[in-house]
Amino acid sequence: MDLLNIREKMLKNVLGRLILRLASFLYQSAVKINLFAYRQKWLKTLAVNTRVVCIGNIAAGGTGKTTAVMLGARELAKRGVRVSVVSRGYKRSAKKSGVAVLFDKELDNWLETGDEPYMMSQLLAEDKIPVLVSANRYSAANEALKQFKSQIILLDDGFQHHKLNRDANIVLLNAANPFSSGALLPYGMLREPLCALKRANLIVITHSNLVSARDIEDIKDKIRLVNDEIEILTAIHKLDYFFDLTSREKIGLDKINGAAAVFSAIGDPQSFENTLKRLGLDLKQVWRFSDHASYSIENIRDFVSMRGDLPLITTFKDAVKLPEGWRDIIKNGLYILAVNMEIQNGELDKFLDVLYPNLSKKKSVI
After folding, report:
1. d(Cα 70, Cα 54) in Å, to the nearest integer?
2. What torsion, rounded to 10 degrees, do the Cα atoms 136, 139, 143, 149 define?
3. 184: DSSP letter
4. Average pLDDT of the chain?
5. Between residues 113 and 253, which one has the greater pLDDT?
6. How many whole angstroms separate alpha carbon 363 and alpha carbon 345?
7. Which of 51, 84, 277, 362 has the greatest number of CB atoms lying within 10 Å of its CB?
């Protein structure tokens, strides 16, 4: 049983809730002590000689930070900026250490870097954007500067990481559950109290199309109670196409209809499943695994035996974790739903300006 299921079971009884609340108090105390130590300079913050911008969140899972990082990286690269992405590499194999550099090459195993960095490297390959992975993000940032002369480093999911100095913080909030009832892990899903939003330079409310305009205004009002001068943008996740993993071909969103089966190991599986339902799909079989979980051959056999003739749909993040030999079992009908982030109301330039100020005024940044 994974930790998410254990937490859900504990929330259903009084003793379990009491234990989780106590754990949340201890977790919050540790977060505050850690931040205080950096503010007092008892712990040292290190800087690299280039611009660093963090794209992160204050709630665990489901905000869309990976798509936000890729949006920023691609848009900057299109404008001639040398950009690199640095990630911790969550769930990276414990045997791997040092800085892993993903650029113009395939790795044999996603465990060498972690699932999300591996996925990003595949999707950013055509844009020639390197992804560097290390638990020591200062070392990774230095390597990006050394190897690629990066003019900006996008720090993926590092809002709670204080060792590497950054020039700006962009924080994402999921419109469907932005504040997780104000409770910290593990009772709630917040990584930090809401006062952490004071450190943000820009807030992006993602999945904004999933709630009403009134809900969006309520979220903005609550944000401004903490940070009344912050710029707040809204974004949606725009559906792009299905990718057939067996034939390696892109197909239109209208080419898959009727009933389907779906599996995922992501932070917000409900949002992914709801997206498929809005496409008109009837999800007859649904498999959910804990965030970042890997798949076994037994899992693949289960998918095939239980789906019948239904198309099987998953995410890019999950596709990179399919075990060796999966093609011998799934002969056809396995699809990835490709999704991109889109900043709403024509405000992409505001997003880019926080990433790289005065970008539109520069004739050339190379």
Report:
1. 13
2. 110
3. B
4. 90
5. 253
6. 25
7. 84
Please give the helix or strand (H or E) that residue 57 lies within, else none. strand 51-57
Q: Which helix (H) or strand (E) holds 29?
A: helix 14-39
Question: DSSP string covering 246-280, please?
Answer: TTTEEE-GGGS-SEEEEEE-SS-HHHHHHHHHHTT
CA 141, 144, 145, 147 dihedral sign is positive
Nearest to 168 by CA among 132, 204, 140: 204
**What's the whole-model pTM score?**
0.87
Long-range contacts of 358-363 (CB under 8 A, 24+ apart): 359/76, 359/79, 359/81
pLDDT in tens, 174-207: 999 999 878 999 999 999 999 999 999 999 999 9
Beta strands 131-133 and 168-174 are unpaired
Q: Note the Cα 242 to chain centre separation in Å.
A: 20
Q: Count how many Cα atoms sit within 13 Å of the Cα of residue 257 in the half-sphere of its side chain.
A: 5
